[in-house]
Amino acid sequence: MNRFVKHELTQESDGLNAFSGILRAITQVCGIDFFWGLPKIFLGVALTWPCARDQVRRRTALCGVETADGGSIVMSHFPSWSWVGWVGRIYFDDVFGYLDSEHAGLEFYYFEFTGEGDVSTIQKIPQNQTFRHKGDEYGKPFKGTNPSWRGDTTTVIQLSDIPVGLLEPELRHTVLAFWTSRTELFLQYDGNARRKGKWDTECFSLWVDGTTKLDIMWDQYPQVADADWGENKRIQRSTVECVVVGRDSLERVRERGQLRVLLVARHPSGGLSRRGQVAIWEEDWNLIQNRIWEIAFLI
User: Fold this and answer.
1) What angle do CA 7, 191, 48 make, to 5 degrees?
2) Which phi and psi (to 5°) does residue 118 adopt?
3) How does residue 193 score in pLDDT terms, banded at 50, 70 and 90?
4) How many whole angstroms separate alpha carbon 52 and alpha carbon 62?
5) How many CB atoms lie within 10 A of CB 13?
6) pLDDT value at residue 246
7) Looking at the DSSP assignment, which residues form a beta bridge with residue 39?
8) How far is residue 103's CA from residue 247's CA, in Å, rounded to a whole number?
9) I need a surface site. Which of 178, 181, 186, 234 has the fewest CB within 10 A?
10) Do 125 and 35 touch, CB atoms closer than 8 A?
11) pLDDT above 90 covers what percent of the chain?
12) What is the pLDDT of residues 27-52, one digit of tens each?
């Protein structure tokens, strides 16, 4: 997969179909089903896939999707939350970690539609509950953190919860719904640092308020350009929505709990699309005062 996503396809709409034979073989041998290229049973970890920070772009073509009743093929956007929705250097290797790492305890739903556009079923995706032991890779004891940020994940998501705008044909097959913790943070961009080649921690940073800078690690820099911030070359800030999607799949080598948080763009449809990803210490996320517990609809 790492090699596949780096290539430009002749038909960009084949972003999933060109890989589907491999996925079918895995399903036949291992019994693991996939949803938009991610293993369902390990979705709570697979959603946290990292990439080469600023070396990816969105896949813009539409993809043919078979309806739940097999009655027709409809054209759909590629979801931003899956690797199939991107082109570039994406990692499912040692940089990523293990799929059987502990997830964040979130429960995910997707919706199946008939050829007429009616919802046939609302599917909850069962998640793996047998986790790799933490702290045994390098002999470091793992200091767990109380997930006080997490609300009631068992509240069932129903059809009435779906924003009407997400039922549009090109969106509805990409919806991934789940209860999670959301907040707004300040995204700071230093254009001067970028021009000097200082990418790692000096170009983008996240702040809780005007004075509190979060200790973070970037998995994917936010999808912005210099033009998005105007022509002013000084340090600038904008607010950005952030949602928890999982835990750090490399927690086994860490001494503290860490969350994987998506920076998202909100669409008029009510859906959220991935525009970046960052690792935040769980204890720091617990301390954020303006976080709320709500349903997120990733598209």
Assistant:
1) 45
2) -85, 145
3) low
4) 24
5) 16
6) 96
7) 34
8) 5
9) 234
10) yes
11) 42
12) 778 888 899 989 999 999 999 998 87
